[in-house]
Amino acid sequence: MRQRLQTPLLIVTLLWPTLATWYYFFYLADRPGVSAAYLGAKLFQAILPLIGWYLLAMPRAATVGPSRKGVLQGLMWGGILGGSVLLAYFTFLRGSALLATAPEQIGSRLNAFGANSPIGFVTIALVLSGAHSLFEEYYWRWFVFGALRDRMSLPVALVFSSLAFASHHFLVIDRFLGRENLWATLPFGLAVAGAGAIWSLLLVRYRSLIPGWISHALVDGAVMLVGYSLLWTAVR
Predict the structure, then answer these.
(1) Residues 217-226: tens digit of each pLDDT
(2) CB 56 within 8 A of CB 10
(3) What is the mean pLDDT of residues 50-70?
(4) Is pLDDT above 90 for 132?
(5) What whole-number distance in Å separates Cα of residue 216 and Cα of residue 85?
(6) Average pLDDT over residues 138-158
(7) Which of 64-68, 70-74, 138-142, 176-180 has the lowest mean pLDDT?
(8) CA–CA dist 91, 165 (Å, integer)
(9) For residues 52 and 58, is the Cβ–Cβ distance under 8 A?
(10) Is 65 exposed, middle or buried (0-12, 13-18, 19+ CB in 10 A)?
(11) Residue range 47-59, pLDDT digits in tens
């Protein structure tokens, strides 16, 4: 029985975040209940690894506390990736037509959570950059990448897990940039996939989620800073 459920569970695991994102970002959009749908989808996503750990017979692989070198690697990659986000924004993208619809879309998402103010935004930004980035490392690196790596070669597991990780980001980026800027969504989404591959390799190298989490949190923090600038400081 457990063997027969493994493949369907892997498929659900890979597709659920993207399907959920489409549901609350596009289908529900600005309708009532979007915040409840978002929280419900995240709760189910958090439960999936607990189910999968048993059904996929994942080994209790030893993990170690973050080494000093691992922490430094996390900081380094966070600086490189997050710095690239800020450099691209403040050098090329700030005030550009590419981001013309982004403030309205960000404001709409904040309204759904009753947080459309600088303080509300900062609160959500801290949650997303800190807790949610750890949640994504737990789901995408420990669980999804770990389950795939048990069943296929490291390069193939990297490709599948990283593209699956990026897939729901493609939808988010498309929503913020607008369908007319689909040409820009692809490279931004592939950049997310590349970051996911780096964080997976950090997990392989240091046997800990902490280096990847540090890097992920810094990158998300950079993205949140861009969002703040778009809403309250950018000249439009």
Answers:
(1) 999 999 999 9
(2) yes
(3) 74
(4) yes
(5) 12
(6) 93
(7) 64-68
(8) 27
(9) yes
(10) exposed
(11) 988 888 777 776 6
Q: Which residue has the higher pLDDT, 39 or 79?
A: 79
Question: What SS3 string covers the chain?
Answer: CHHHHHHHHHHHHHHHHHHHHHHHHHHCCCCCCHHHHHHHHHHHHHHHHHHHHHHCCCCCCCCCCCCHHHHHHHHHHHHHHHHHHHHHHHHHHCCCHHHCCHHHHHHHHHHHCCCCCHHHHHHHHHHHHHHHHHHHHHHHHHHHHHHHHCCCCHHHHHHHHHHHHHHHHHHHHHHHHCHHHHHHHHHHHHHHHHHHHHHHHHHHHHCCCHHHHHHHHHHHHHHHHHHHHHHHHCCC
* 138 contact partners, CB below 8 Å, separation of at least 6: 49, 209
Q: How far apart are CA 213 and CA 194, in angstroms?
A: 15
Contacts of 223 (CB under 8 A, 6+ apart): 85
Mean pLDDT, residues 115-139: 93
Mean pLDDT within 163-178: 93
The model's pTM = 0.91
- Please report how many Cα atoms fall inside a 13 Å half-sphere around the Cα of residue 79, on the Cβ side: 6
The terminus-to-terminus CA distance of the chain in angstroms comes to: 58
